[in-house]
Amino acid sequence: MQSMAEFGESISTVELKVGDSATAVRKAARRLISRGCKLILGVGANSASALIPLANGNPSIRFAVVGYEGQAGGGDLAGSNLDAISFDSKLAMMQAGYLAAAKSSSAVVSVIAQAGALGVREQAWYFRQGVEIYNTDLGATVRVFNLEGSTPASWRYVPAGASSAAVAKLTQASIDEGADVFMPLGVDGSDVASLVAGSKKFVIGTDSDWAAEPAYASERSAVLASITKPVSHAVIDEVQRAMGGATPAATAPAAGEPQAYLYESVITPEAGVTWGAGVAASITKLAQEYADGSLKFTSYGK
Q1: In what order do the strands lie in the sheet with 82-88?
Q2: Pairwise CA distance, residues 80 & 149, whole Å
Q3: What is the pLDDT of residue 235?
Q4: Which residues contact 278 (CB under 8 A, 6 or more apart)?
Q5: DSSP state letters, 73-103
Q6: Which pLDDT belongs to residue 1?
Q7: Cβ–Cβ under 8 Å, residues 139 and 133
Q8: How far apart are alpha carbons 145 and 187 in whole angstroms?
């Protein structure tokens, strides 16, 4: 809607379900092409392989994948009219880990993560880095339940495609272990938040502002913070690019990969939830040290 106000452009949509095939995504995009759309946005990492052939066949139309991760896949090479919009959550996840450790009364926090979900191991890695930074700063011994092993392969996950019952089981096991701050990754957050709220614990939301989401209305008081992606900003930039306007420069892509535009995810406090002045200052300091290169942490995969 903001793009309509700023640029006078109308919006046409085709709704898809999570997990829809590349064929379904491509069919939806063809409908948008037939409507004369100048810019077609696909949401989710898996839409890349579906959109590349259409982008190559329609060079006068811009295409973009919001939430692109990793290789384009599908065997086709991306042309100059396909953009990849990605979100870097390293800093936000470290801040979340630091915050969780600082707010834990039991010195136990928990990550509830799904095996095989895109980016989950990396996100969990940086969350644990944040806990370790807190421990170093304060001489504390906060531990991350489910991430006790030295490598991501040894950590405890719910299976890929696990039921709500499986997510609830691992959440309850974490509560029984004493965890009082939770970080759900790659799972239905409401399965975690409902148990956490009922036990008077905290949860940190991901991808959107959970305290503002109707789906989390009954768990709002348990939401300590949320990690949000600046999707609106990214989409407005993409609309401006499609209209020939100037926007931040792309990262040089690898051969056959789309033009890459990277945005930083951010951690935001929730209304009515107090982090504490000292904690808030430490979270800000992490961002400053990350920006100037002085923050000491171990990169994922190193």
Answers
A1: 39-43, 62-66, 82-88, 259-264
A2: 43
A3: 86
A4: none
A5: -TT----TTEEEEEEE-HHHHHHHHHHHHHH
A6: 33
A7: no
A8: 16
Domain 90-228+272-292 belongs in CATH node 3.40.50.2300: yes
Read off the tokens for 111. 């990550």
pLDDT < 70 regions, the chain: 1-10, 16-20, 45-46, 69-78, 245-257, 271, 302
Q: Quick one: tokens of 209?
A: 């502002």
Instruction: Write down the CATH number for the domain with range 2-88+230-263.
Output: 3.40.50.2300
Question: What secondary structure letter does DSSP report for 107?
Answer: S
| Alpha helices by DSSP H, the chain | 2-7, 22-34, 47-57, 90-103, 120-138, 164-176, 189-198, 231-242, 277-292
pTM for the whole structure: 0.84
Each domain of the chain, given as residue ranges in start order, spans 2-88+230-263, 90-228+272-292
Task: Check if 2-88+230-263 and 90-228+272-292 are the same fold.
Answer: yes
- By the 8 A CB rule, do 57 and 79 touch? no
**Cα torsion at 164, 168, 171, 173 (round to 10°)?**
-140
Long-range contacts of 142-145 (CB under 8 A, 24+ apart): 142/100, 142/101, 142/104, 142/107, 142/108, 142/109, 143/107, 143/108, 143/109, 144/97, 144/109, 144/110, 144/111, 145/108, 145/109, 145/110, 145/111, 145/174, 145/177, 145/179
What phi and psi values does residue 89 have, to the nearest 5 degrees? Answer: -110, 10
Tokens of 181: 């701050």
